[in-house]
Amino acid sequence: MSQNSTPPRPDSAPRPHPSGTSSSSEAWASGGTLFAGVLMLVTGIMDIFQGIAGIAEDDIYTRVGDYVFKFNLTTWGWIHLIIGIVVAIAGYGILKGAEWGRVAGICLASLNLLSQFLFLPYQPWWALLSMAISIFVIWALATDDAYGRAERY
How many Cβ atoms from other residues are within 10 Å of residue 65's Cβ? Predict the structure, then answer.
């Protein structure tokens, strides 16, 4: 090997971004996708518990105000149980890097955002926290360009 030649790069070395630059927003989105998968899995499990609590006892949650939309708490329990199961499955798909997981994750995070908005009269703080998590999940999954590729830059 001569002094002027560069050593070969090992396969495990990080590769530069095709545009020649790596922005911090891309790094956030890439790391955010993994975090979004974990958050969806945890949110799904918490929604399952929230649904079970609503189904088992109709008097666990109290209504904070008088709203136009009114559902029986058992109905809310079934809604949260079903959404929780599907959100947890989508979170697992995101962690596995499946393309269906990304699409399902964006759709289900949007659905969870809507259902938590409607659940505000019963659990306002938990609903707001879950809505913020859903917004982060939508952002992370929508902005990660390298999602699902076998080789990330």
Answer: 7
Provide the 3-class DSSP secondary structure of residue 65.
coil
Token pair belonging to 51: 């649904």
Q: The pTM is what?
A: 0.67
For a pLDDT cut of 70, what percent of the chain falls above it?
Answer: 65
**From CA 11, how far away is CA 13, in angstroms rounded?**
6
25 Cβ contact list (under 8 Å, min separation 6): 143
- CA-based radius of gyration for the chain: 21
pLDDT, one tens digit per residue, over 57-86 is 765 555 555 655 566 778 878 988 998 999
End-to-end Cα spacing for the chain: 29
- DSSP summary character for residue 30: H
Distance CA 15, CA 45 (A): 36
Distance CA 72, CA 115 (A): 14
35 Cβ neighbours under 8 A, 6+ residues apart: 140
Tokens representing 42 are 């945890």
Q: What is the pLDDT of residues 6-64, one digit of tens each?
A: 555 555 544 444 444 456 666 655 677 888 889 889 988 988 998 898 888 765 555 55
